[in-house]
Amino acid sequence: MTAREATLARIRAAIGDAPAVPAIPRNYRVRGDLEAGAAADLFAQRVAEYRAAVHHTDPDGIPALIATILASAGDTRAVVPTGLPADWLSEVPSSVSVCTDDGGMTTEHLDAVDVVVTGCAVAIAETGTVVLDAAPDQGRRIITLLPDHHICVVSVDRIVVTVPEGLHRLDPTRPLTMISGPSATSDIELTRVEGVHGPRNLDVIIATAGRTALVRDRSWLVP
Amino acid sequence: MSDAPAPTAPIHAPAGVGMLRGARTFPEAARQALGDPQLRHNLGHATATIREKRANVVAEVADWAELRNAGQAIKSATMATLDEQLVRLEHQVTAAGGVVHWASDADSANEIVARLVRETGSREVVKVKSMATQEIGLNNALAQAGIDAYETDLAELIVQLGDDLPSHILVPAIHRNRAEIRNLFLRAIPGIDPGLTDNPSALAAAARRHLRQRFLSAKVAVSGANFAVAETGTLCVVESEGNGRMCLTLPDTLITVMGIEKVVPSWRDLEVFLQLLPRSSTGERMNPYTSLWTGVHRGDGPRAVHLVLLDNGRTSVLADQVGRDALNCIRCSACLNVCPVYQRTGGHAYGSVYPGPIGAILSPQLTGIEHNASLPYASTLCGACYDVCPVKIDIPSILVHLRAQDVEVKRARRDVPTPEAIAMAAAAWTMTDDRRWSRAQRSSRLARLVGRRRNKARGLIRSLPGPLAAWTVARDAPRPPAETFREWWARERGRDGQRR
Ligand code: SF4
């Protein structure tokens, strides 16, 4: 008998009393009842509480804002995913070198990069969370992990209110990373310290709708 | 041997491997902890801080009660169909390019992982904090196979460098203060800056530098999983520091060791647990990072993905109609932080990787009650654990159930020499502290409820909870009154003894 068969047989013996299979009471809140502006405000407030920097702009202001954030952080080497709207970096000065990761950048190369700029798949207002799903405007997981600074552009049409709404919009077959503030630890006397292994600095740019580059249709996932 | 268990009978976790059995009984170990004022101070501060954070973020969720009900139902439904769920999970993980392994116990899980690592040609692995791999003693087993395992969670690193044992599910180094950690780093991390201060930021930065190169060069990672979705084959790791993301993303090979009870049926179920867990655990609305992956993602992350499904006594927990609810635990550690016993003794006294109230009901069931007979008594049955548990595990009732089992086992072995002597030793421990005594009295009120159920007509109970239990082994105790004398006194006279 294989370990698989044996384990399954032990389980069947253990539940030989045919325990009741309860119905799942899903009467918890699924949808948030905020209109878009209020949801974006709540999202901004919750992200800021994680000590991430939050910025607001209309779509036309994104390039200038990114350039400003890079300059004030002193970043000189940037990486971007292949699907990032090209004009987002149009105002970045030539003193900043920008690499586009086509999947071929090495770990060492990425480790030497200061900053990554991405979009996001979904943002959840109540928990101040952005979710990346490796779409072309977000790239491989590694590019948002090794650089110490992550600039994430969140278009307001990607913001939902609740966790259930957020998960409905996501495709579980993709690699997903939910990010709520910069990396942190409270392992030493429960004192919260921002920044351990993940990016220590997170800037979130909330952009009003109007430009929905690369929105993929996810409606089939919503029940 | 005719009494050898049939291969299909639920089995306990084997002895001699892993971390489920302490060298000493709980009262022995607790006595030592109680004599350490620094430890009690660290624990008191830490648990009070987390309790307050948790209370704040739970209070802002209007539908917390509904989420708990859903969480409880999902877990119970999962356990009732566990065979089916695991087969679905296996199918989906395999379809997504992963490889599923089944391990009946700690030894076989350790063997599987060691073999998988060896097959990669690597002699080292990076690890993200995982209770299951601590439970099975994986690091030791790998060391014996000539493989170095590096813990990457800051607290686990502190524990590993200090050759110490974890003492809390969420904050394993909760018993260490910053000065101790600084000294440990100076001693154990090669090439560390001797000017290191004990500022937590400086200590975290030192850990970052220490582990960075290891992450970048690691070929194999070992993780646990908080959840696995049967419907989609998706695995989920919830963390804070980013060491989890490093382990899940950078190496070529990822080996995840997961207890069979961690499966959930559907993707939708995560919407419940990803709300319940972070708020109950770290007291945050959401933990900094949650990673979800489904098999191999081409061009992104590990190229070989393994999932080891671990029994190691879980099927014997599942076989107990009352005790099986312990498998519903999502390891948030909220019950530790509210437990008056844990707050005083700390985690080491429990002798297992699972401390606190959950440890008191889980460890004895995984190993068989004979091996952890004192743990079900490590509680005052005050019920605080049940109140905070995000999946509503009725820990006090399971404790009472296990105490009865312990008494049965001992009675069958005629192993109850002088119940009064045991009772008096336990009572002495209880009574040396005023507050402890009032709690024990409250718990004997709970015994009244139990007693009512069992011996309604006669006004007698057959087993007392708490350290007083042994006393009832040989005699029936009279049912305590609904209100203890002290409670009556406090109500009648107030704290200062003046009549109201
Ligand atoms: S028993 Fe409940 S409260 Fe305790 S760790 Fe498990 S889920 Fe959390």
Going across the biggest sheet of chain B, name each strand in turn: 1-10-7-4-2-3
What's the CATH C level of chain A?
Alpha Beta
- Structural category of chain B is alpha/beta
- Cα separation of the termini of chain A: 42 Å
| Oligomer status | heterodimer
**Largest interface, per-chain counts?**
A-B, 74 and 102 residues
Q: Estimate the helix proportion of chain A, in percent.
A: 10-25%
User: In what range is the share of β-strand residues of chain A?
Assistant: 15-25%
Poorly predicted runs of chain B: 431-435, 444-500
CATH topology type of the domain at 84-314 in chain B: Rossmann fold
| Structure summary, number of beta strands of chain B | 12
Shape of chain A: globular
| Secondary structural class of chain A | alpha/beta
Low-confidence segments of chain A = 211-223
Which key features would you list for this structure?
heterodimer; A: 223 residues; alpha/beta; Rossmann fold; six-stranded parallel β-sheet; four-stranded mixed β-sheet; 12 strands; B: 500 residues; 21 helices; globular; disordered C terminus; binds iron/sulfur cluster
Description:
Chain A has 223 residues and is of the alpha/beta class. Chain A has one domain (56-216): Rossmann fold (3-Layer(aba) Sandwich). Helix content of chain A is 22%, strand content 22%. Chain A has five helices and twelve strands. Residues 211-223 of chain A have low confidence and may be disordered. Chain B has 500 residues and is α/β, with parallel strands linked by helices. Chain B has 21 helices and twelve strands. The model of chain B is unreliable at 431-435 and 444-500 (pLDDT under 50). At the A-B interface, α1, α4, α5, β9 and β10 of A face α2, α3, α4, β1 and α8 of B. The complex binds iron/sulfur cluster (SF4). The site of iron/sulfur cluster (SF4) has 14 residues of chain B, from α14.
Give a brief rundown of this model.
By secondary structure, chain A is of the alpha/beta class. Chain A has helices at 3-14, 36-49, 62-73, 107-111, 163-169; strands at 53-57, 77-81, 97-101, 115-118, 122-124, 129-132, 149-155, 159-160, 176-179, 184-185, 193-194, 201-207. Chain B contains 21 helices and 12 strands.
